[in-house]
Sequence to fold (280 residues):
Amino acid sequence: MFYLLKYYIQMKVLLRNSDLNEALSGFSNVGFVPTMGSLHKGHISLIKKSLNYCNKTVVSIFINPTQFNNKTDYKKYPRNLKKDLKILKKLKVNFVYTPIKNEVYRSKNKIKIHLSKKDKILCAKYRKGHFEGVIDVMCRLTNIVKPEKIFMGEKDFQQLILVKKYIENNFKSKVILCKTIRDKNKLALSSRNLLLKKGDQIKAGKIAKALISFKKKFFKRKITKKLIFTKKNELEKLYGVNIEYLELRNKKNLKLSNRINHSKIFLGYYLKNIRLIDNF
Fold:
């Protein structure tokens, strides 16, 4: 008998690896959507894709402590399991995996994760150990769920590229890239947005709109470092934010670029004490 947090019609909520393995036994073409909870429309779009393309879908809710390089950030991360389960039930998700830390980290065998010098850019430059923690937990979760497809959003683009490389080199699973979902003000949806006051959410949306407009304006022109630097200073003064990085990089290899075509503008900044990232 499954050890369940609760049983819902058409949805099983599982806490232990053994119960998940038993539940998935005999099923093929399993889709997996890894989350840290506080679900929003971005997560929902990933889940719907998995439900459409896979025979069974597993959604995990696990706030992974090893990817937080700030203990306060970990404690403040939004949590609302009851609301999340209601959303997942309505979507008719097959399985929800909500493990405790010991279940995920039962095996102490780590895949050796070494970010190369070229990978220590953008968020990796400012969040020491973050991506090592993300890649490690994603490898552990993939090993537990054994999905055919993993659905991840492009908002955390650098994370997506790194995870895709490690997962597809070590497992039979394929990582599926899914578009960023934005609100009506163009702010990329994120669980961290719940930590922002309404006025700050509007301000973050204005920053997103400004960079979307910047990208359109210079689509066919060469982008110099000076132009990026000027835009960074302009945004900081106009919106009172602290920008860690504003860079134009190639979408495939994340090398610095001077052309909008085949590239993305990457942004990491603090709005008051909340760290936000985006790409355009």
